[in-house]
Amino acid sequence: MGIDIDIDIDKATGGATVLKQERALHTRHALVRSAAEVFERHGYVRAKLTEISAGAGVSPGALHFHFENKAAVAATVQAVAAESLRRAARTATRRPDLDPLRRLTDASYALAERLRQDVVARAGSRLSGDEACRTEVDLGAEWRACVHGLLTEAAARDLLAGGVSRADATASVVAATTGLEVLGRTDPEWLSPETLTRVWRVTLPRLAAPGALSRLPPGPGA
Amino acid sequence: MGIDIDIDIDKATGGATVLKQERALHTRHALVRSAAEVFERHGYVRAKLTEISAGAGVSPGALHFHFENKAAVAATVQAVAAESLRRAARTATRRPDLDPLRRLTDASYALAERLRQDVVARAGSRLSGDEACRTEVDLGAEWRACVHGLLTEAAARDLLAGGVSRADATASVVAATTGLEVLGRTDPEWLSPETLTRVWRVTLPRLAAPGALSRLPPGPGA
């Protein structure tokens, strides 16, 4: 019976610990989301920690339990955004059954949708270009490398149209997609599948060799 | 002789006033340029007035003689940038002898060059998109209206290629040029004529009707 009681106590304590961890995780998520909203509204420098904790429905003390200072909050927003955006890009680009131009357009739709729907992705993406809170995360550089890699593969497989160099293609795609991301910060319509399709409808037929194009419907990936 | 002396005194006073005005104008120019450099380095919120006056080689008091506060400095940087960029765009677009697509590409080269060469244009352009110091100047909106106007004219004159709507064309050109402007803030190479030509080489042949294209060399305007 003594054993039973011990087990019961253990179970009760374990349950309480799990509950506490869950609550802590929930608070942390709420803080990251609130921080993203505040960073998006005011920018990094003017964002106030009190507004972030209030937005998450917790005390300033609870925020400080999770984050040492504003830089730590911003670094976490960037890290969470990076994880979310990298996952979206990976899902689209790691498809050996699809050709590289199709993977490129699929990745652009996936990233735009993530940015449009998710304030943490959007705020983190913006923070990673803000010299006031530089971290090691540089999402712009990661995207440029991704575009360059896929277009290099397309060039190697003779999928690029004649008269268009890999450098021309990379500059165009990077410029257009970077523009959409920045314009989408103030007007989410720029990140809609419809707008992205407008841009690909102009760009893609010039990038792709005639044979490749028939397999590349300019529209959201299936 | 009394008259001669009077005239001499008038001349001397007039000369001193002109000299004083010239010096004030020179100081004001130096302050605007230094402010642009400081805004570009630190962003609006973190920019310090003492660094701006020091950069112009004047005292903080001299800065306050010209500008009431940081918002007034930023508003002036934006106004000077707007004037400079509008002049560059006007020179390119007010050419009734050239077709609207050629005027569009010419304007893009002129604006990119202005942004690349002139720190005030660059800083003012960036400030006009910064919610921390909104003024009535919205250079992004002006450029979008300019692109839209020229492409509307091109569509009306049957210069757009079949299969490309005016909305497709506008979205592509606005996205790509906005991207170049933003990328050029950290790497001026994105604003070079070479990079712009890469982008136009991909975009233009898809925008222009076959007949129009032969008259549209994708390169800096003559």
UniProtKB/TrEMBL annotation, chains A, B:
Keywords: DNA-binding, Transcription, Transcription regulation. The keyword Transcription applies. The keyword Flavoprotein does not apply. Residues 48-67 bind DNA. This is ScbR family autoregulator-binding transcription factor. It comes from Streptomyces neyagawaensis. NCBIfam families: ScbR_bind_reg (NF041196). Residues 25-85 form the HTH tetR-type domain.
